[in-house]
Specification:
Radius of gyration: 31 Å
Oligomer: single chain
InterPro entries: F-box-like_dom_sf, F-box_AtFBL13-like, F-box_dom, F-box_SCFL_complex_component, LRR_dom_sf
Protein name: F-box domain-containing protein
Distance between the termini: 45 Å
Helix content: 25-40%
Pfam families: F-box
Amino acid sequence: MGNIFYLFHPEKKDSDRQREEEENKHYELTESSDTCWKEEETNHHHERNNASADRISDLPDDILHLILSLLPFKSVGKTSVLSRRWSHLWSSYPIIDFHEIFTGNEAVHHQTKARIINTVLARRNENYNIKVSRVGKDRNDSCLPRVEEIVLNISSLSENRSYLPQCQLKCLSLRSIESEISTCRNSKAWLEFPSSYVVGSYLRSLHNLSLNHVDFLDSDLVVDFFSSSSFPSLEKLNIERCGGMSDLKISCPNLKVLYVSIMDLNSLDISGMRLEKLKVVDPFKTCIYGSGVNIFAPNLQSFGWVSSAYTGKCSIQSFPTLKRSDISYYWDAGRHHITTRKMHNNGIALLFASSQVEELEISYNSLQILSEIYFKLGGLPFSFMKLKKLKIGTVKGKRIPGVACLLKSSPVVDRLKISFRSIEGNDKWKNTLFDDANCTEEQYWEAQAQDLSLFLSHLQVADIDVGEVIPKNAFNFAKFLLKYARGLQKMILHFPWSENCLPLDPLNDTIALLEGFPRASAEVKFSTFCH
């Protein structure tokens, strides 16, 4: 089966004279085989007599294909007239690069291109895979047969919109469709995709679908677009920066991997019994009270959520078989005009879905919400009973209550990786009781010892990233762990490699200072690591 790669670019108008000249020029590749057969047959007798001297033709196909790959593509095509042996090699040559033929000849008409492509592919050996790369768009009704993969590369630097020809989807063999953007990040180039193409179309065997900068034209059909009726065999789906939809519902029965990124949705509904990997990044650009997210994936193995937008309804079912989860969420209540209670409920719902996870990573911006939850609710209403590895993003200033909130709900964690950075200026707890009492970080950690007793009894390895300059909050936390972590076996001070990185002497001095503090575990060992 074949792999087809397309590059969509603006077409230029041609005169009839230019069109005729280009047709004659490019038919050199596709028709040279037919025009030279008589000459080849005439010399066939001489070919047999000289066969003993033709050692290269006796080489295996794979080796000869490798040798041919070093030649320009047009030269490879010309070898087909040498003999039947080389004609066979040409028909089985695995790479066809039409871009080389058309480069420098932008005036060639798209109908001429289509005829050249169809003629070459018609002579291919059906038992060989074919890769056709970087071909201009074609609006006629021709269809490249036996295509397994199509890559739609939108390369226009302008605000042009490319329209996907329906004929390119009429391939019963099609297994993968991907759209790519090869322009600047803020490009406004889009691929217009009529949803009606898929409904009752030839894509029921599709396994992989990746849509980037795609504008759906039939908004009414998009609601139930990604379902069993349209994509019953789909296993991997990527949707990024797509327009023409406000409510996205995905329920493909065989879907295993799903990515939804940088959308402008009002609601997101995901359901999949076989879904194993899910990552959602900024699906909602604004906070709308009528918006909502619903996720049901009981067999999910990996979950990622990155969003700064609030949803009115957040219903995410627990993932009982989850192995890894990466959560980054935060909201500016003042900017979005939402209540603190609803903001907390969203955060709790996201974390509860990962409550059965084995490895969890929380970003630094999530600590703000967790700090507020800890102050106002006393912690999360559940525990991570399977969590063994916990990674916490950069801790700055008085966000350590968010750290305490996580540690209190992680009673069986045995490996902790946490980053600290110093912060300039007057940083307050944002809690009247602690601010009025001028509570220090060291005093705060001392007050948490009893609530964190289960965590402290199971922790074995503490990996602390201290940055280029050891911040005081990192030192206070390390001192707290040494004093109360009874099962601690190893403490690693992590620092980045740079010209301004910490010299060895201050690190050794810091370790020597920590070694002098009281330790709950006599087995703890210290080390440094530069990354």
